[in-house]
What does this fold into?
Amino acid sequence: MEKRQKVILKEAISNYIQSAEPVGSKLLVEKLNFSVSSATVRNELKLLETLGFLKQVYTSSGRIPTDEGYRWYVDFLEGSNGLASVAPVNAQLEMIAVQKVKNTLNHVAKVMSSLMDYTAIVLTPDIYKMALKVVHMVLLDLNKVLVVLLNKLGDNQEFVFNLRQRMSQDDLNKVSQIITAKMEGLPFFESSDFVLRHLVKEFPNYASVFEVLSKEVERLSSFHKTSESINVHGVSKMIQLPEFKNVEMTKNVLTELEENRFLTELISSHIFGDDDGVVIGKEFNNEKLEDCSLVISPVKSGGVQAGAIGVLGPKRMKYSYVIPLVKQISDQVQHYISDQDGI
Amino acid sequence: MEKRQKVILKEAISNYIQSAEPVGSKLLVEKLNFSVSSATVRNELKLLETLGFLKQVYTSSGRIPTDEGYRWYVDFLEGSNGLASVAPVNAQLEMIAVQKVKNTLNHVAKVMSSLMDYTAIVLTPDIYKMALKVVHMVLLDLNKVLVVLLNKLGDNQEFVFNLRQRMSQDDLNKVSQIITAKMEGLPFFESSDFVLRHLVKEFPNYASVFEVLSKEVERLSSFHKTSESINVHGVSKMIQLPEFKNVEMTKNVLTELEENRFLTELISSHIFGDDDGVVIGKEFNNEKLEDCSLVISPVKSGGVQAGAIGVLGPKRMKYSYVIPLVKQISDQVQHYISDQDGI
DNA sequence: TTTAGCACTCTGCTATCAACAGTGCTAATC
DNA sequence: GATTAGCACTGTTGATAGCAGAGTGCTAAA
It folds into this structure.
């Protein structure tokens, strides 16, 4: 592609992103201060159409970008330094200090959604894959035990279960030590089934606790697997955008946001891949989201996956703003999380 | 109002609820197997319109209910035994056993939304008003402390804070005992500021912990006050209903569901009132919700407020199904919660 | 009190038309 | 060979009109 074509394509796409109106040759000549006529631009546009970057809404309408067009645009922005640098958003993020990672990320999503008209998404840590650091068990009530799992990330997670027989806090301390010794470094929910069964035999006097705990963890796992680990903010602003006049599309997108299994898996898988973290239209491989785009950035802390933040909007998204914003915020959050854990 | 008028009004409203189409005199005669002509029904309809229960969409269209009409209808259903009895929904609710109340209620909302096309809302317990039973503090890390608040309801809530100086678990146990002794029965977040300041003087050797804790609680309070205590399921199904063709209305409702302060307060206040738990259209005193209705039922456990479940839908809601359903489910949940706490 | 009959009103759909934005093509020009 | 002016052509959009249909309100009779 020649330089002029690139300039025209870029201008056409960024114009459409702004106006949501198909752009024509005349407008482009004006915007670009070109010394060529609209007819020349028309020829170029036609070429860009055969290349698959632009399309017409109807015969002899102006052009709008195809998915491939957006993809080229995003790659172009990322290649050249077309991405605006975004000022840190300290002010609103400051209150996030000491918090559980999950709460922190949810708050971040709220702040982020206030900075644009799209939907902010956070994926909170996958507790199943987290390496255990230490287990604490606290006797809350006569027979109610709070289990606190502290992972290597410095983040904690709790759940409660009922004992069948009375135990003292001292006993629970011993049990906690036993479990910690066996499971340190392992992902708790994935390994506990095997380990606990083993412990039942090894420590017959605590067999009852291990059995109950084992069953409880199993039950919790199946419950957690079906429950949300995704959090969403700013839907109401997004659906005011012109593309959401289409009720069918709106319905589809909201459905995917509510029954979030697809998005959860997509984001999870993208976190570990090494792509640019932008998914455009058909790249979702999901009809319900084919009019949308998603910008994702993982949040790590001390080399461990702490979660991810992302932005879902129409394909006609202000990539030049959103991409650096998401990166900026994920960087900041990473610092906050690392700081508070002293890693 | 005479009997025939009541029959006509009831039939008109329930018909509109089913069809979403204005109902006319001819249709009513058919449906009711009346031995009178459509002209007679027309006269009655006119009367019902002057009484304020029905209105026309335009001159000489069929009738649709006014807010007052819906109100009459709901009161009528509740007065007569027009409310269908709903079979218990044990199957899906069984997995909720030992869980924190918050998780339980969220799960219930999901199940409930699967039973209809409206939005299920749950309000989780207001931690600010809960009477404290006991405080546990657990040393998680070198300087990280997990605070566990157990309330009279048997429900627990945790938060984490960082110590300024090293302390042993033994010290923390003492501190926990001191706080528990002072604050038992009080609402923790509302009282802790005052109590903790006092403890700083009373126990100089623990002054530092009490100070840090005090600041932390203050920070957490302001954070929690702005955070959600509401949870929502089934929006995507609801917006497929014909009333949500109107984009403006959809936008309004989604906004209120996202920035849920209004709904949160409304539901909270209704929990303690002694009305029937149905809010219709203008009764919201909120323009954004004036095309909606809300059915709420509180969830109590051992005399204490544990939260609330509700259903938000269009005014044209299947009250005869939703009202008993919500009550049925809230009863069931109440039993589950009470059972698990052994109260 | 009820009803048949009729004029009247407003919607919702379809067709038609003009304005217009923008294209594609051709032939002329640099 | 690249560029451009000119023009015919295409499809959208918005306004307007016409028409069938559903449903009412009113009147006069039963």
The mean pLDDT of chain B is 87.
